[in-house]
Predict the 3D structure of the following.
Amino acid sequence: MNPVKPISSEGDDTFATILNNAGAIRAICSAVEGTLGPKGLDTMLVGAQGEVIITNDGVTILEKMDVTHPAARLLIQVARSQQEHVGDGTTTATVLAGALVAEGVAQVTRGVPVAKIVKGIQEGIAAAIKLLARRSRMINGLDDPLLYRIAYIAGREHTDLAKLILEGAHQLGTNKLQEDSFRFADVVISHKKAVSEVWPGLLIQKIPANAQTDFPTAPASVLIIQDAFEPEVIDEEALMTEAGFQKQMQLKEQFRQSLNKLLELKVGLILADRGVNAEAEQFCTDHGIMVVQRVPRRELRLVSEYTGARPIRRSGLYKPANELAGYLGFAGRVSYDERLECVRISEGRGRAQVTVIVGASTSEVVGERLRIAKDAAAAMQAALRGGCLPGGGAAELSAAYELDRLRETVQGMEGFGITAVAQALRKPLAQIVVNAGYNPLEKVEEVKAAQIASGSDSLGVNCDNGTVIDMLEYGIVDPADVKLHALHAAGEVAAAILRIHTVIKMKPRAEE
């Protein structure tokens, strides 16, 4: 009788799953970690139709990658979360998550229970976040020189983009940038025909329905129609009756009369989120009223806030002129830019707004410059809100040393999880050093010794010559919120991946 091969134990299955997931995480991290730091290089993404994107933006690389492994997709969620909440630091978050998984797996292979590792990682992440938050330095308003340095570093050392973002921040003001609902990166747009500038207002990237009209730059009352700019209609079944037909004619006549009220109210710009019928378009053309159709709801909301307009439905056009006037906004300058094919609005009477326009020679280059400028804007706003920390991995290395001291006070096996966090916090500096062409073991220990000797958390590596320098003196700083959220998100996904016992394919749903 041939011997029967024993079935793998539950522990072996768990071990195999963790190793498989760790391998997928490692593959994802290797795609982005080479872009980290001032000496990081670019990644070329090639599409199925031959389209090419050259970038070192972490979230762009991860979003565009063809990824099928479920654990790898979890890691991509870290970058997506970082981008949505802070707008910068996606590569750092990914590298930290990958390092946490790698260190956690290393402890598991030594025999430490996964549950203990995960609990220790959670405790270590919480302690590290407190350590970093305590080290943050506040930004003293828009005139703080560190603010430009933050935009310069997040903007991949593009001086023109850093200055552009800083100019936009000055025009908006600190109060606007501090608003929880406002995302500075959202006001940054790009156009390959544009010259980079900060426009003191809004740009609606739509061609007016009556663009053939020569619209001079002029003040205008603004009407926002959150509906189609056309007469109300009745259903086809009712239209087949005599009463229905008469009702439809009555609605059309009411609509024509409502158009005359636009002249009475001196409306100069109409924005609708749906279509505009031919009669309304012709009326606006005849009387010099600019009408823009199918404007996205988000842009309508921005115009509403900026001009003070209150959106109405098309039935609101039938209101008396004195009531309709209360729904109008106002802009001191409205014009159509034929070169950029967009509507420019400025001098609104509502809330402050600017548009940062990024230009470049080609669509490929302008796309990358847009991503860089958005990162710079997000980093600048995050620094204003939460302060800054020494960059170049210096703050993380200092926190790692403190975690090592904390580890010595923990008696249970959770201490191995804290050790994993401490080791992961050394990863950003180590990777930056690798990308600069130096030995990470040598440089990390050199910086660690220098930090301990001086009692400073701001010492790091000069990537040009490999010497130890004070990051704050050299203006190498990162927003505190970027680092804190990156660490928090990385800890969550690392714990989730390490806790996966096995992977089972689900059966297809009935509708599939």
In short: The first strand starts at residue 43 and ends at 46. DSSP finds 19 helices and 15 strands in the chain. Confidence is low (pLDDT under 50) at residues 1-11.
